[in-house]
């Protein structure tokens, strides 16, 4: 399954890269004076930049290690070949790519003297970062739906959440996530950029790009922010609905032990949802949020690098089956 997802990602990456490089390259020649942007990133004294480089590099390596271990454990431990863990394994696989869409370029940017990124490269990063983030929103919604079925409809769960249906949901998350963002990116890329070209951020984000456009585009801004709000709130409301039904059922369980067990199966997912959506809404829901550049960088760093790093810890530390599978995968024996 993970090989299929990897092949799907590579195919989509190749096709979209070819189309975007062709389209954006043509725009560079005919519309824009700006051919590259300067990502200031974490500017400041060299010691501070070295600190950020070391911190982000360690976070990234641990993210790859932690999420890779979950993917490996779910793939090779047959006890985890259930919908809940298949979704978790694919979510960990997604987190690897999500972090990789920005962090390597972030690290190169810190070491770079020029800190430049090409016009096409900027919008390609924009596309993959936001498409993978959208895919994560969909995955979190599907994982909440899986918990709703397991707790609220346990007798029908095996027939509804079959392996085939689970794989179908996973494919829909990936495909839908990558089909959502071409429209906003095309709208923004068609704006005239005639200078300056300095982005006080470490990723190509819509807010700074709108600020660099030579003309104001309130209609495009409204469309993009509305689009972001729909993508964020749609899955979020679905998650909220699933857990509202779960809460109603759990509160009717007569025994305290039963309620504790039911809540424990949802606790990890709720922590991840709170962390991811909390930072996401601060950045992209309100077009008039007016967050200073420093705050934007910190919030973006949390959900682009911090959340993928914390997710393996949250899921493995709170899940006995996952801890046992990871120990087995790492060759750790328990007495």
What's the layout of helices and strands?
Elements: H1 2-30, E1 36-39, H2 46-76, H3 83-100, H4 103-111, E2 116-118, H5 119-152, H6 157-160, H7 163-180, H8 182-189, E3 198-199, H9 206-212, H10 218-251, H11 256-284, H12 293-317, H13 320-329
Parallel strand pairs: 1-3
Antiparallel strand pairs: 1-2
Helix pairs in contact: 1-5, 2-3, 2-4, 2-12, 2-13, 3-5, 3-12, 5-7, 5-10, 5-11, 10-11, 11-12
Q: How would you describe this protein?
A:
The chain is an all-alpha fold. The chain is built from 13 helices and 3 strands; from the N terminus they run αβαααβααααβααααα. The protein has a 3-stranded mixed beta sheet. The longest helix is centred in the middle third of the chain and has 34 residues, at 119-152. It is globular. The two termini are 33 Å apart. Keywords: Cell membrane, Disulfide bond, G-protein coupled receptor, Glycoprotein, Membrane, Olfaction, Receptor, Sensory transduction, Transducer, Transmembrane, Transmembrane helix. It comes from Sciurus carolinensis. Residues 66-315 form the G-protein coupled receptors family 1 profile domain. It holds the Pfam family 7tm_4. GO terms for molecular function: G protein-coupled receptor activity; olfactory receptor activity.
